[in-house]
Amino acid sequence: MAVAIKKASSSNANVAPHWHAHAKEIQKYGSVVEDIPHPLSAKIRADMVAQLNQLLADSITLRDMYKKHHWQVSGPTFYQLHLLFDKHFDEQVEMVDTIAERVQLLGGVTIAMGGDVAEVTRLQRPPRGREEVPVQISRLLEAHKIIIQSCLDISDLADKAGDQGTNDLVISDILRPNELQSWFIGQHLVEMPLILEK
């Protein structure tokens, strides 16, 4: 069975991409959509979005630090830490996405671009160059400490505001994995001889 293909006329079809588009933002950063089918008030949602965006900026920074250290780790524990840092990076990718989706669900706008994240994160920026392993791990532990405390603070605020969705998210999906990652990397700084003397 033959299929007829209609030739597009150059007068009524333009197949070139429209790539110089400019328009106004459809929603400003820091705002929330007022009228959405959600039981929480716009004020509560805006407060939670602000808290979650700070957590998101810090989590994006931690995620990227894990990838940096994955690439730049060296020394006798290279192989183990190279794999561990990459595993933690992948887990942080999931956490970042989970936080961002909650921000959007609450009617907010997520912080997303690296430059914007760098302006608001509370985490210490590592140097561009390579560092010794104990320094890499110490910086990661400090970052986890800030994020864990942020989760506890947001949980308290969300509980008082009646935002059980955010409360559950920061405890179950962000706090617990960060605690576990912190424990895993922290054990690399414990001074323990390879052979214990009797």
UniProtKB/TrEMBL annotation:
Family: Belongs to the Dps family.
MF term (GO), any: ferric iron binding
InterPro entries: DPS_DNA-bd, DPS_DNA-bd_CS, Ferritin-like, Ferritin-like_SF, Ferritin_DPS_dom
Sequence ranges assigned to domain Ferritin/DPS in this UniProt record: 50-194
Protein name according to UniProt: DNA starvation/stationary phase protection protein
Pfam families noted in UniProt: Ferritin
Lineage summary: Bacteria, Pseudomonadati, Acidobacteriota, Terriglobia, Terriglobales
